[in-house]
Amino acid sequence: MKIARVEAVTTTFPHEREPLSYCFVRMEADDGTVGWGEACDSFGCSYAGVVGACIEQALAPLLVGEDPRDVEPLYAKMRGWTRRRLGDQWVVMHAISGAELACWDIAGRAAGAPVVDLLGRVRDRVPVYASSVFLEEGPPDWHVALLRPCLDAGVTAVKLRLGTGWRSDLETLAAIRGLLGDGIDVMVDGNECFTLPTVLEIVGRLADLGVWWFEEPLLQHHRRGIEELVRRSPVPVAYGEHLFGLHDAQDCLERGQALVLQPDAAVVGGLAESRRIALFAEHFGVRVVPHCAAGPVALAANVHLAASVPSISLLEYPYPLAEFWSHAARSPEWGPGALVDGCLPVPAGPGLGVDVDEEALRRHPHVPPPSRAGLPIRFVGDR
Ligand SMILES: [Mg+2]
Predict the structure, then answer these.
(1) Which of 132, 136, 199, 201 has the most Cβ atoms closer than 10 angstroms to its Cβ?
(2) What is the pLDDT of residues 308-346, one digit of tens each?
(3) CA 381 to ligand 1 center in whole angstroms
(4) Which domains are assigned to the chain?
(5) Is the pTM here over 0.85, yes or no?
């Protein structure tokens, strides 16, 4: 079996605040088998055209003619041949993630088995937490109503996002905390937009509310600040959705920069590399809760990841993207209606188990980001 064709299928789909883009990888083998991967650059794939060009121009020539079932050698080949030109992080690793997932999908389809069974299955369903929107987007009861389908389906942890109006956001969060009751864990995402003095003020408030973790509070490269924060914060600090490859995660762990690590198979280098990161993190006493914030293939990949690592007992579930999931894939159903006791079942089909609706993706071709005139130079939540 040889790879005959590798194509990036990029799409832009309506979403509440503005349309969201996604980047899929369509890999076709010479026997006609088609595998699908997906690359995420943090939330969907905002720069899908850029990542797609990397897939088609840099990675496809390395893959065509090779056996797609040789996933690990192909991963090493992609990194080895691009590292000294395109780097070993960010866009090229997003692209490599998507291509690696497509290889896994074909490998599973060729074997007639779900990918999790090629990796070693440890569970049939994966507990998820509801990853929700920015606190500034609505009043407390609106947030709880938005979360309701997940809560009714047995989800027992939710995450909300702090923005520039963090003082009023914290008041909204306190009210939500009260409305949810004691049985629900609450986490907060800071999206790297605060400075250390502000974060130290915020974590005191978060500790009072019993918040489980504070995610990406400081710029990821403010390493000394993060190390100081982890030492001083009463609330565990989470990083990992922008740590690429095991070497990045190892550096983070050895410096003690996170107590919760969040690799994503569609972001940080693919499924096998995410597993290596997760298994390695166990030795540091760090909890691993994979990040997930893109389309149905990325979600499937992270479900297979979580179902194949004993220590992963929770996965991010970005339920506001559910409308796109049902648009982009005929099956499985990934929306809150698919949750059983707060868990997503591992897809039963071969490969990653997603029946991608290629026609639906092509009906909404990718549109590059619109003009950003008037936006501030950098999003800083301190003000
Ligand atoms: Mg995040």
Answers:
(1) 199
(2) 999 999 999 999 999 999 999 999 999 999 999 999 999
(3) 15
(4) 3-113 (3.30.390.10), 117-352 (3.20.20.120)
(5) yes
